[in-house]
Amino acid sequence: NIVQPNHAFLGQKDAAQVAVLRQMVRDLNFNLELVVCPTVREPDGLALSSRNRYLSPEQRQQALVLSRALRRVEEKVAAGVIDAESLIDLGLAVLADEPDVRLDYFRIVDPDTLEDVSDVSAGALVAVAAVVGPARLIDNAVIPPR
Q1: Beta pairing, strands 124-132 & 102-109
Q2: Sign of the four-CA dihedral 46, 40, 121, 35
Q3: Residue 1 pLDDT
Q4: Closest of 146, 145, 139, 144 to residue 70, by C-alpha
Q5: Are 47 and 41 in contact (CB under 8 A)?
Q6: What b-and-e string marks burial along 28-61, b requiring 16 or more CB atoms within 10 Å of the CB?
Q7: For residues 75 and 73, what is the distance between their CA atoms, to the nearest angstrom?
Q8: Please, what is the average pLDDT of the chain?
Q9: Orientation of helix 84-95 relative to helix 57-78, angle to 10°
Q10: Section 57-64 average pLDDT
């Protein structure tokens, strides 16, 4: 706030920080536009992260399960499934394919409040965090309102 920027650019991968900063901008009435930039991914779908460098080649392959789970949920939503519980079950089933990936959470939440939602019809954020080898990785997908 001291330097009075007009825009702040944040990555979608850090969705929790985006939600907190959106609320702060509203609460403190900052004259600031938050611009959320898409998550940058490797060609195989792995979200870019400085933590990826800690992964062995085998662990890196295991880490791809995060983006696979998100893609499967997005596919089901595109096919008309909106029930969050069934979408979570689907994501968890995909994640179970990699037993060495230690799941922290797989949730479907309101992108502004980060509160769990029962369906994705109003839009949602599908968020996942897991430990792969020495690295805790996060990823997410935004489900637009229907």
Answers
A1: antiparallel
A2: positive
A3: 78
A4: 139
A5: yes
A6: eeeebeeebeebeeeeeebbebebbeebeeebbe
A7: 5
A8: 96
A9: 160
A10: 97
> Across residues 46-52, what is the average pLDDT?
95
Q: Which pLDDT score, from 0 to 100, does residue 45 have?
A: 95
> What does the alpha-carbon distance between residue 102 and residue 140 come to, in Å, rounded to a whole number?
17
Encode pLDDT of 83-111 as tens digits.
999 999 999 999 999 999 999 999 999 99
- Tell me if 46 sits within 8 A of 39, measured CB to CB: no
R_g of the chain, CA atoms, integer Å:
16
What percentage of the chain's residues is helix, strand, coil (to nearest 5)? 40, 30, 35
Identify the residue whose tokens are 């933590």.
Answer: 51
Predicted TM-score (pTM) of this structure: 0.91
Which residue, among 109, 85, 132, 89, has the nearest Cα to 16 in the 3D structure?
Answer: 109
| Residue 39 in tokens | 């998550």
SS3 69: helix
